[in-house]
Write a structure and sequence with these properties.
Distance between the termini: 64 Å
Order of helices and strands: HHHHHHHHH
Number of domains: 2
Strand content: under 5%
Radius of gyration: 21 Å
Shape: elongated
Oligomer: single chain
Length: about 200
């Protein structure tokens, strides 16, 4: 009986190990596909994004790409989900909605805005362009922003200032993504320092 239990335990351990390996491999492939999509968007523009081009850039078969993202809309949704997961993960790392202050939350969000990797910026540009043809594409992002805006309004003494700082940081990122504003590194760093200085003023004494 003891030998049977050990064998059964080994079997479940092996199955679980293989399952985790498959999940990790699948996520690695999806990450490659997302980065490939960003490269295609950067090189040719969002309007020329096709599954064939992404598959070639990612060096996967068309069938392999379709297994993870069965359509172009699914791929675009995957890009958005990735961006939102990173933002949501940041907020969760900072603490629950009940115990994280507006100052702490904004400080992390400002860093995330200004340190956003190049491939994620390109993904965001592609999503903005694609939303012109599919307005519903950005619906999850709208929900995320509205929830964050409401969260910053929970603390009445700092609500107006906190929301203004958020809008300033996010507004700058949007202007840059749309190509309407091009700042030097020094200019971006100066704005970042100023926003973080304003954020520190929200912290309780």
């Amino acid at each position: 009986m003891e030998a049977c239990d050990r064998a059964l335990g080994l079997y479940y351990y092996t199955v679980w190990t293989v399952y985790k390996w498959c999940v990790m491999k699948s996520e690695h492939t999806r990450a490659r596909i997302r980065v490939a999509a960003a490269k295609v968007i950067e090189r040719e523009g969002a309007g020329h994004l096709t599954l064939e081009k992404v598959a070639a850039e990612a060096r996967v078969s068309k069938g392999g790409l379709l297994y993870h993202y069965p359509s172009k809309d699914a791929l675009l949704q995957g890009l958005l989900d990735h961006l939102l997961e990173n933002r949501s993960g940041l907020i969760e790392d900072l603490g629950s909605a009940e115990d994280v202050s507006n100052a702490t939350l904004l400080n992390g969000l400002i860093d995330a805005d200004f340190d956003r990797p190049k491939d994620e910026r390109i993904m965001a540009q592609g999503l903005i362009a694609a939303s012109a043809e599919n307005a519903d594409l950005l619906a999850p992002a709208k929900d995320h922003v509205e929830a964050l805006y409401a969260r910053l309004g929970a603390s009445k003494p700092t609500a107006a200032s906190a929301r203004t700082i958020l809008l300033a940081s996010q507004g700058l990122q949007l202007l840059e993504l749309l190509g309407l504003l091009h700042l030097s590194t020094a200019e971006r760093n100066e704005i970042r320092r100023h926003l973080k200085a304003l954020t520190r003023e929200l912290a309780p004494c």
